[in-house]
Amino acid sequence: MATLVTGGTGFVGSNIIRALAQRGHEVVSLDLSPPDEMVLKFLEPWASQVSFSTGSILEPGDLKKAVEGQAIDKVVHAAVFTATREDIEKESSLSIVNINVVGTTNMLELAAGLPLRRFLYISSGAVYGEARGSEELLGEDVKLYPRTLYASTKYASELLTRRYGEMHGFPSVSVRLASPYGPMERITGHRAVMSVLYECTGKAARGEAIPVGDRSLGRDYTYVSDTAAGICQVLDAPTLSHDVYNITTGRKVTLGDVVDALREVRPGLEFYDDPAKVYGNLYPGYVRGILDGSRLYQDTGFQPVFDLSMGIADYMGWRDTAPFLD
What we know:
Helix content is about 40%, strand content about 15%. It has eleven helices and 15 strands. It has a seven-stranded parallel β-sheet with strand order 3-2-1-4-5-7-12, with helices on both faces. A two-stranded parallel sheet has the order 6-15. A two-stranded parallel ribbon has the order 8-11.
């Protein structure tokens, strides 16, 4: 049996494939982009367990081709147009809705014809919205405020995933990711806004001084290896008590914390204060509460492994060996 992962050559998708392969899964990756040298190197130790299919989730024929001859019993739908800047949202509104909603519907139509043991949709903490305090703990049952197209399409896809599972009799679940950071994050055709940790570790790898704005601002950055491990835990759980789970460390990481961790890993780094570097500029993102991971921990026994220092050390190690200086 095999697991189909959409968006498999992207940031989170490639980490999901790696984590699945480490756990013994046979994996079929479907992505609009074929695997490049960086993806192949990242997955090289498990190359015999991973096959790649190039195609679009907007083309049902591509989906059928990807599963043809494959014994797919689980699906992780991670393909997405990550549009978190207003200019991208305005310019690409139709593409965002098509990829994030129609694409999900196409995947669910495909799932309805497969003997699935689970369909897992990768959602986002963005569905909680901006209209709340930065210290609020966000459990899965709080009221949502999905205002942007990205957040709205994510929540719409959660609802579609639940309903298709009910109608067609396959187990379905959605996971809302806290802000991931780590290896394989890079600019692609459908991902243009990078995380704080991408910006800072990139400058560190290049030996550049790092401008820092308000060091008290932050959010629940989660190392992508933990993110992928949490997704695997939900995917492979024998039974689940809920149809949505937060994947998070449950801890706030401030820019000050990032500076301290980088100094620990790279003692010679230089930092300078720049009030112009507000959280929405060099450090993109909005103020959001901290996702609560207790439901995930209680139901699956999952526990994050990486604290910030460990995550940045591992991330910098990958940047050095990849090598990846962007």
